[in-house]
Amino acid sequence: MHEDDLKSQLTIARNEINNLRQQVRNLQHVQRKDIETINRLLQDFRCEGCASKNKGVKDKAAGEKETQEHQRERAQEQGQGHSQGQSNCNPGGLGHGEDLAHFRPIGVIRTAFPEKRAVPRQSIVGSRLRGIIQLNDGVFTNPEHSLEGLGDFSHLWLIYHFHRNNAHPKAKVAPPRLGGERVGVFSTRSPHRPCPIGLSLVEIEKIENATISFFGTDMVDGTPVLDIKPYIPYYDAPSLSVDSGRSSAGPHENSLDFYDSRQEPDGEESDLELYGAAGFSGNSGVGGDAVLPPPSAVRVPNWVVASHRLSVTFNEHAEAQLKELQVEKQCIVDILEADPRSVYLRTKYGSQIFTFQLREVTVTCKFDDKAASVTVVQVRRNENVQVTGLDGDPRSA
Length: 397
Known about the structure:
The protein has helices at 3-44, 48-76, 83-87, 233-236, 256-260, 271-277, 302-305, 316-325, 329-337, 343-348; strands at residues 107-110, 130-135, 155-161, 172-173, 183-184, 197-208, 211-215, 223-230, 311-314, 353-358, 361-368, 373-381.
C-alpha cells in the first residue's frame, strides 16, 4: 500500500479512537443520569398493595380529623346556625391528583437504525429507507383483519412512542437548524417532549398478513407503535382545505421544498376536483354570484423552510467498499446531506469524524463546516451485530 494511503488510514483510525472516547464519556454521563433517575424512582416506589394501604390509612386519618373539626365547629357555633361551619369544611377530604393515560402498543417498528445516532429527523429524509410494522396478536385475535382496506391508500400516519428518550423534558429546546437558539418545545418536532409521542407520514409499499412494509424511516429499530391512520390529502394537507371566512396567503417563496414533501401522491385529486367533490363551484350559490373560496393560509417560520443541505462526497476507498458491500449510496447521501449531528456535536466537535450504523454497515465520514460539505471515508461491515433483515428493492439500504 502507498505510504500516503497508510498515513491517511492512520489519521482516520486516530480520529475514530478519539470519537469513540468521546462516545464513552457521553455514555458515562447518560449512565449517571439513568442511575440518578432509578434511585429517585426506587425511593418513591410503592407497590399497589402498599399504595392502597397507605391511601386507606391517610383517608381514615383525614376522616377522623374532619369529624373532630366538625364537632369543634358545632360546639362553638351552637345558637349561631350551622351554615357557616358547613361552608368551611372540605367534603370527603379529596385531593387533586395528576391524571395519567396508559396506552398499549399495537406492534413494533423494524428499521435500519439499531441506535438513535443519525436517525433522520423527518420521514421525508429517509424516503429511500424501508421499515416494517409488525402488529402483535395481543390486541386482536386476527390482527391482519385490522389492516383490510389500508392497501387502498398510498400513505399512512404512524403514531408511536419515543421509548429510548429518558431525558427529563424541557419547556424550551434547541432545534439543530437554529444553531443553539432555544424555542418552545411545542413549536418544534423535538422527540424530547412531556408526552414522548412521535408522528410520521410514510409511504405504504405492501401489506402482507399483519405486516406493513413502508418507506420513510425516521425512527429507531424496535419502536412501539401506538396507532395507524390513513393519509387523506383533502383533510390532512392545510393548503387544500376550504375556509371561506379567511383570506388566502400563499406559502413563503423559499418554502417549495417543504411543501413538495407534503404534496398528494400521483393519481390523487387536484385542488379543483377536491373543491368540486366538496360541493363548491364557480356558479353555485344564491344568484350564481358566489366565487370559489380560496385555500386557507399556511404559514411556517423561516428557519423551518430555510435550506441547510450539505454537499456529500465519497473518497475512492469508500466508493469501492460500497460496491463490495452492495450498499445503496443514495441512502447514505440522504442522511448526511441533512446533517444528522446534534447541536452539541456540531458546535463543540465541528469538522470532526462522525460514525453511525446503517443496518449491517458502519459509515465513517468527515464534516467540513466551513465548506458545508461532508466526505464519506469508510463503509465497513459490522462485526457480531444482528440486525433485522429488510429485504426489498434498491430503495432500501
